[in-house]
Amino acid sequence: MASQREGFSRTRMTLYLGFDSSTQSLTALVLEVDGDRKQIVFESAIEFDRELPEYGTVHGVLPDPDPAIAVSSPLMWADALDRMMKRLVDSDLDLSRLAAISGSAQQHGSVYLNARAASGLASLDPARPLAGQIAAMLARPAAPIWMDTSTSAECEEIAQAAGGSAVVAQRTGSRPFERFTGPQIRKFFKRDPAAYAATDRIHLVSSFMASLLAGAHAALDPGDGSGMNLMDLDACRWWPVAIDATAPSLIDKLPSLAPSSTIVGRLSPYWQQRYRLPPARVVAWSGDNPCSLVGTGLVAEGRVAISLGTSDTIFGLMRTPRVDPSGTGHVFGSPTGAYMGLTCFKNGSLARERVRDAFGMTWDDFSRALDAAPPGNGGRILIPWFEPEITPSVAIGGERRYGLAADEARGNVRGVIEAQQMSLALHSQWMGVDIREIHATGGAAVNRAILHVMADVFGADVFPFDVANSAALGAVLRAYHADRLADARPIEWDAVVADIAEPGERARIAPDARRHAIYRELLRVYEACEAHALGRGPDPAPAIAAWRRGSG
Ligand code: XUL
User: For a tag on the chain, would you pick the N or C end, based on fewer CB atoms within 10 A?
Assistant: First the structure.
């Protein structure tokens, strides 16, 4: 009897696969669903620099003498996908139960394919590795990614042609931003018109990866489409004004837009034959931030997540879109069909690493140094723009220090973490959320010393998420949600995230009221230092001195 029951339940068990193609690695998660029970049964990551050194990336980026340029290799991403599939079939999972696959990808990056791609993707040779076959389909070997800051002129041109930055922000959710795909496309068209003309399809990283799985050009979801400065956010359609302002014939080169839950195809014969995989549904991929929204359980308004990854981001769901009047934030589509507000900071994990490495520390040393310096750092401020910054917009990198010596280990450690958290607090005020609860994710969210500073700066409860990769978790949950919808057995979003993308009360980090009071005052000092560093405000020394007197 028992074995019969087991046998019955096994047949109902379904597997879902979610990827996250991020700046520095490709992660895969497998979710097993058995009735209401969900669990992650496989998790693996391929780190590009270490495991695919033949592509020559540093932190996932191809080195370039110009610090404003950041490009990567689409072939490396394809190679990682191929190798990850091999890892999956070499595991002991019964992949015949695989029902659907989806994915998350770094936002804004673009892949340029020629006219050979349409037939080439459909007729890949299963005996040969993927990357070598994709090479002939590229109209441009390199893919510009979100870290690129080289398109200020194009942002200006697009804004002018489309009626001004504010109009672009109102329509697309963001003013023209250097890393956004439209300005990147315009730069490519201006620099290399012949290669632009030979481009048949411009994918985002997300729709490129989905196309590799489906063996056909895949549609783009509004979550990632809204990171292009090309999509009408309300209508979820391409906005002709922005398209015309960007490059000629662009409309013919863009993928179609479709809701996030769209099944863009079935796992192609290439994968079925190469790895004996079933014809699982391929669900539209989305951007890492829209996926993380689901992966951190933010399917209702009022809470925010902070992701401490290569970039640091703060985001939350919005029922109705509110555009940032200061022009630093973004409104993206959410996979749930609503919207999300987001602010992105480029000097995230690489800035933390810069400070750690400058003093030859391990992460444990770093945490100890952080705890050893007092909250408020004695009024010593570090503005951590080691690289050109997105928020606020800083074209030429270079950190600034106020009352802080460059060789003072503890002060610099405390300085970088406090600055990042104060900047997150300052530049997310436009979202209008009274932040009481923060879901912390991304690699650095395992560091409780950092999360204590986060809780104290925001005066909010911080819940670290168990799965470091909330983007991959969001992707796999999206696969589950879309598969149920396609089977005409729809499931509500709060049921999708229940028991798996919910904060654990035990891990809660509560703010300290006294420290929060210190940061409330220090935030104004930080703001003054930032204004000064941007050349928009007076010397903040009097503000720092006044804070020191007040806190002493
Ligand atoms: C968001 C952004 C980054 C990337 C990182 O606008 O640029 O968070 O998505 O992968």
Answer: N
Amino acid at 442: G
Give CA–CA dist 23/145, Å, rounded. Answer: 8
Pairwise CA distance, residues 378 & 390, whole Å:
27
Q: Given pLDDT bands bounded at 50, 70 and 90, which one contains residue 506?
A: confident
Structure tokens at 159: 């804004």
Is the pLDDT at 11 greater than 60, yes or no? no
Cβ of 343 less than 6 Å from ligand 1: no
Predicted local confidence at residue 301, as pLDDT: 86
Q: Environment class of residue 21 by beta-carbon count within 10 Å: exposed (0-12), middle (13-18) or buried (19+)?
A: buried
Q: Is 70 a pocket residue for ligand 1 (Cβ < 6 Å)?
A: no
**Checking DSSP bridges between strand 461-464 and strand 437-441, what pairing results, if any?**
parallel
State the distance from the centre of ligand 1 to the C-alpha of 87, rounded, in angstroms.
27
504 or 113, which is more confident: 113
* pLDDT reported for residue 552: 53
Q: State the pLDDT at residue 520.
A: 97
| pLDDT at residue number 468 | 64
C-beta of 332 in contact with ligand 1 (< 6 A):
no
Q: Which CATH number does 3-290+470-497 carry?
A: 3.30.420.40
Residue minimizing CA distance to atom 7 of ligand 1: 146
- How far, in Å, is the centroid of ligand 1 from the Cα of 148? 11
Residues of the chain with CATH 3.30.420.40: 3-290+470-497
- Global pTM? 0.93
Dist CA 115 CA 117 (whole Å) = 5
CA-to-CA distance for 170 and 45, rounded, in angstroms? 38
pLDDT computed for residue 551 by the predictor: 77
